[in-house]
Amino acid sequence: MPRILVLHGPNLNLLGTREPEIYGSTTLDDINEMIAERAAEAGIETAFYQSNHEGDLVDAIQQANHKFDFIIFNAAAFTHYSIAIRDAIAAIDVPVIEVHISNIHQREEFRHTSVLAPVAMGQICGLGVESYLAALEAIIYKLNRAE
Ligand code: DQA
Predict the structure, then answer these.
(1) According to its UniProt record, which residues of this chain constitute the active site (predicted)?
(2) Which of these, 6, 13, 75, 90, could form a disulfide with 119 (CB 3.0-4.6 Å)?
(3) Are 32 and 47 a contacting pair, CB within 8 Å?
(4) Angle between helices 54-64 and 83-91 (to 10 degrees)
């Protein structure tokens, strides 16, 4: 059974109450549940991890190597400056899809840069929590085509 790791970076544990005008009112548990449900329907196993700490995310990425088929990753603020996370993604064989709830390109200048994008398989942003689901649909499509 294919396996997907869903990784969430700093402050995403506060979704639901954090700047709802930008991120909406859906909680992280709701997002994980939506992903798990759709993935189960498609015969995909899921695992979820959120951390506010850069090193913990680096560890999670390293440990995912050879254990998962894809990673869906919202690195939150680390997206814009964490070379350690970028290097961890580059060091593993698992393709990573970068996601963001908001459209980072429409926001402050410092959010326009993703240091992860050059080593990610692709980037999906601005669709609200559906950014995660769009990443999952892309993975389902790829897995079906690979069969
Ligand atoms: C975010 C966008 C980032 O710029 C921000 O730091 C976040 C969330 C998003 O999902 O829109 O924490 O990754």
Answers:
(1) 23, 100
(2) 90
(3) no
(4) 10
* Residue 13 beta carbon below 6 angstroms from any ligand 1 atom: no
CA of 93 to the centre of ligand 1 (A): 25
- Centre of ligand 1 from the C-alpha of residue 76, in Å: 4
Question: What is the DSSP secondary structure assignment for residue 27, as one 8-state letter?
Answer: -
Is there an atom of ligand 1 within 6 Å of 52 CB?
no
Q: Which domains does the chain have, with CATH numbers?
A: 3-146 (3.40.50.9100)
* Token pair belonging to 67: 């254990």
Q: 31: which 2 tokens?
A: 């997002």
Percent of the chain exceeding pLDDT 90 equals: 99
Q: What is the 3-state secondary structure (H, E, C) of 46-57?
A: EEEEECCCHHHH
pLDDT digits (tens, 9 = 90+) for 79-94: 999 999 999 999 999 9
What span, in angstroms and rounded, lies between the C-alpha atoms of 109 and 53? 24
